[in-house]
Amino acid sequence: MTDRGRSAKQLTPLADRMRPRSLEDFLGQDEIIGEGKLLRQAIESDQLPSMIFWGPPGSGKTTLASIIAGQSRADFCALSAVSSGLKDLREVIAQAQHNSANGKRTLLFIDEIHRWNKAQQDALLPYVEKAVVVLIGATTENPSFEVRGALLSRCRVFVLRQLGEADIVRIIDRALRDTENGLGGLDIQIARGEVLLMARMSNGDARAALNALEYIAGTGAISGQEGITEAAIKESFQKSHLLYDKDGEEHYNIISALHKAMRGSDADASLYWLARMLEAGEDPLYVARRVIRFASEDVGLANSRALEQAVAAYQACMFIGMPECNVILAQVVVYMAKCNKSNELYVAYNEAASDVREYGNLPVPLHLRNAPTKLMKDLGYSKGYKYSPAHGYKEEQEYLPPELRGRKYLK
Asked: How far apart are CA 237 and CA 192, in angstroms?
């Protein structure tokens, strides 16, 4: 059927059509909106604070805001930080001030609020502070880093968790049964094992699961009596199910997990976190650079060849790139995990750097200074210096400034 022959509802994506309209239908976030929870009470009593919803894609941030909009008596305005700016904000604020003068509250929902810059967030701050608007922000990024501190301090942060597989299964089943908004009228057959596979591949993202289901149904990739097959499900997801943002928090979470797994000498976990990065499209040279750092920070003097291995892996990745270099990174990551470990150099350097910050620019002792001119010799430069080879490298001589005499960084 062409788009011309389809209704407006049919043209709306399945994920939007199946969006819950009430708290009773909202799945997977009982920790914050379950019976008796403060947020649920605030929603039901229509006494909402300004707040930030922080959670992974498809966890229900926008849906929860939509439910709040449907239950609240306040005027509801929605902006996307991707496509809106100060001009749009000023228009909303003008309407909110008009509402306030007439005894009506305004709820302002800003999707992906982390994409607004400092100036845009600062422009919003006074109106949140004076309660001209009640802010509901949604973000996939850690608000501690992406939302201005002054604005964040005036909001409650609610963390939405990744949906569990059981929640995704219920959402898929609901879409397959629903004849009004879902796919119930198509009589789609799908085995329980394939539903579980789809739930697992969605990685807690309800939207991803419904998009994949709709894609399969729309392309007719359904095999007769067998219904939706495992092959069709895997093709519909491809790599889109791998949650990974090279500039976002998950990027840093996973490289941190890789570093800590190598430090803990767990080669299997190290391989897993490496694969998570590479299969999602991470730059192999970024991983190789981090392994070079690890070789000195966490292996150090316990195995001086670790740095050679890390540098060789980096060079090899430069030569051949992905996907061929994946096994090279696997080799060096496992090597690092299995190495004896020592952070002696890391600790020693940090102690030396701490002394630099505390004592400032201490003068180099005169006997350690070169004296290429007569004036410098007359001033005592190099006087009393003991040439190490002439003393069999057993000379007794102080190499630190007097203020740090006897300091031992390497224990």
From this structure: 18
